[in-house]
Amino acid sequence: MLSSTSFAAHAESCSGLGYSIQLMDSAIGLALSDKGVRAKEAGGSEEWNEDHCGDGKLFKVGVDGSAVDPRAYRGTWSVSGSGADTVVKYSYTVGGSSEYSWSLWSNASEGLCWGTGPGGNPAIATAPPQVLFRVLVPCRDQIAPEGAPTRARNVFFRAFGASACR
């Protein structure tokens, strides 16, 4: 979900931003699986718009749905660890190879915050649910191979407020 950017400038923690519930174990999968997430850098302007398929595939989705920034496979996401050590792990395999692991925090309205260290400090990104989450059409069928034409499908799904991991 979160690729390289400068995180040092923002020192606020997830708990300091009002995300006081640390998601552990299967709660992370329930929060992300088969959902599109549009998160914004905490204290910054960078945004990430990614579909988290239930089978672990991760797709970047263009914020405006245009051909300039099309939907594309980027790697995988998974949950590892247990208890307070549970993290969501992102493995990007397109355009190089990189891995990021973040603790995931929630608030009373089920918004999410990705963070590092105790209390999610520093916070990396946040995603309020009422604006940034959408249930996906099931991602499990017919994943389009890299380079396959998907624009027509994406336009359809965007027009109806959903997206797909297909």
Structural overview:
- It is globular and about 40 Å long.
- The two termini are 18 Å apart.
- The chain has an eight-stranded antiparallel beta barrel.
- The protein has one domain (15-159).
- The model is unreliable at 3-9, 131-136 and 140-163 (pLDDT under 50).
- It has 166 residues and is mainly beta.
- Helix content is 12%, strand content 34%.
- It is built from three helices and ten strands, in the order E-H-E-E-E-E-E-E-E-E-H-E-H.
- Strand 5 (72-80) and strand 6 (87-92) form a beta hairpin.
Secondary-structure map:
Elements: E1 21-23, H1 26-32, E2 35-41, E3 47-52, E4 57-60, E5 72-80, E6 87-92, E7 98-106, E8 112-115, E9 123-127, H2 129-132, E10 133-135, H3 151-159
Antiparallel strand pairs: 1-7, 2-3, 2-9, 2-10, 3-4, 4-5, 5-6, 6-7, 7-8, 8-9
Core attributes:
3 helices; single chain; disordered N terminus; eight-stranded antiparallel beta barrel; 12% helix; mainly beta; 10 strands; 166 residues; globular
Q: Helical element count?
A: 3
* Amino-to-carboxy terminus distance: 18 Å
Low-confidence segments, ≥5 residues, pLDDT <50? Answer: 3-9, 131-136, 140-163
> How would you write the strand order of the largest sheet?
2-3-4-5-6-7-8-9
Computed structural class: mainly beta
Share of residues in helices: 10-25%
Strand elements, count: 10
Gyration radius (Cα, Å) is 15 Å
Q: What's the pLDDT, averaged over the residues?
A: 74
The total number of structural domains is: 1
Q: What is the general shape?
A: globular
How does the major sheet shape up?
8 strands, antiparallel, barrel
- Output the helix-strand order: EHEEEEEEEEHEH
Q: What percentage of amino acids are in beta strands?
A: 25-35%
